[in-house]
């Protein structure tokens, strides 16, 4: 697991400011859930942690070190859809992730190393409940199974940080509940720092140890891109008692933010 530091980060595309002066300390081992209206920059933030995007200004650190310029095996990611390779079986997908994590030059392992990778891939497939589907291709899996596979693929790299971008957003409520039951123990057991973007407040509060909201606090009707989103709510759910609302600048947001929350289990 790793701590993430965000210092005075701005993201701008041309004259559109997307994120405005973000400052955050994400503790090692936290499960951070990010919520906010569509287009406020949640995925952009996730892409920055992944290393796919650079801040226009400011800096991002992992364990006190500047983020490497490109995605590495220390950060795994699961998107809402299309995270897996359609031409590979379940086993093939997870094995490839192991191989790419261990041998970035050749992308393949040989001999004992490959046998070991195969054993580990099979154990991970069992852990996400897909052993019976090991030899199927993604097209033969349900949406929930595909997301289980995407999680196994992300975990194969043994990441210190797992990034989840609306990973359960396309699933029906029952399957979504099953995925919640899968991901929380995995996070606890594997000791990763998780950053999850979601539109679902209930999901954010039931999985997260900390929930933050991004939103624009200033609007210019003549120039919609002039102001970016900031952290408007920052809720530590590991504390008992009334939820501390840090940096709350929008008091009229509504009920979920004023509920009494006890330690997330
Ligand atoms: N590469 C890019 N070039 C230009 N604009 C971009 C780029 N990436 C994102 N944007 C813009 O940045 C803003 C934030 O996008 P982002 O996808 O991060 O929002 P989001 O909060 O994740 O939205 P949603 O909840 O709808 O997925 C949007 O206005 C989007 O059009």
TrEMBL record:
Molecular function terms from GO: ATP binding; ATP hydrolysis activity
Task: Determine if Membrane is one of this entry's keywords.
Answer: no
Which InterPro entries does this one have? AAA+_ATPase, ABC_transporter-like_ATP-bd, ABC_transporter-like_CS, ABC_transporter_ATP-bind, P-loop_NTPase
Q: Which domain of life is it from?
A: Bacteria
Q: Where is the ABC transporter domain?
A: 4-241
| Sorted UniProt keywords | ATP-binding, Nucleotide-binding, Transport
Which CDD domains does its entry note? ABC_NrtD_SsuB_transporters
**Entry annotated with the keyword Transport:** yes
| Family to which this protein belongs | Belongs to the ABC transporter superfamily.
Q: What is this protein called?
A: NitT/TauT family transport system ATP-binding protein
Source species, please?
Answer: Hansschlegelia beijingensis
């Amino acid at each position: 697991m790793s701590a993430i530091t965000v210092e005075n980060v701005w993201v701008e595309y041309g004259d559109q400011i997307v994120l405005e002066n973000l400052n955050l300390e994400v503790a090692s081992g936290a499960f951070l859930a990010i919520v906010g209206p569509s287009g406020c920059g949640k995925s952009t933030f996730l892409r920055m942690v992944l290393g796919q995007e650079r801040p226009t200004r400011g800096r991002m650190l992992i364990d006190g070190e500047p983020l490497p310029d490109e995605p590495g095996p220390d950060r795994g990611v699961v998107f809402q859809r299309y995270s897996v390779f359609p031409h590979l079986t379940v086993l093939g997908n997870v094995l490839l992730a192991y191989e790419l994590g261990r041998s970035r030059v050749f992308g393949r392992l040989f001999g004992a190393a490959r046998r070991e990778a195969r054993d580990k891939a099979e154990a991970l497939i069992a852990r996400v409940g897909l052993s019976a589907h090991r030899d199927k291709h993604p097209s033969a899996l349900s949406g929930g199974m595909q997301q289980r596979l995407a999680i196994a693929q992300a975990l194969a790299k043994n990441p210190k940080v797992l990034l989840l971008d609306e990973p359960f957003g396309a699933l029906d409520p029952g399957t979504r509940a099953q995925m919640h039951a899968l991901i929380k123990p995995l996070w606890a057991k594997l000791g990763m720092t998780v950053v999850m973007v979601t539109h679902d407040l209930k999901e954010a509060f039931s999985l997260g140890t900390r929930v933050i909201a991004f939103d624009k606090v200033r609007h210019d009707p003549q120039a919609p891109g002039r102001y970016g989103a900031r952290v408007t709510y920052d809720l530590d759910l590991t504390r008992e008692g009334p939820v501390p609302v840090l940096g709350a600048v929008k008091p009229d947001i509504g009920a979920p933010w004023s509920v009494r929350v006890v330690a997330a289990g």
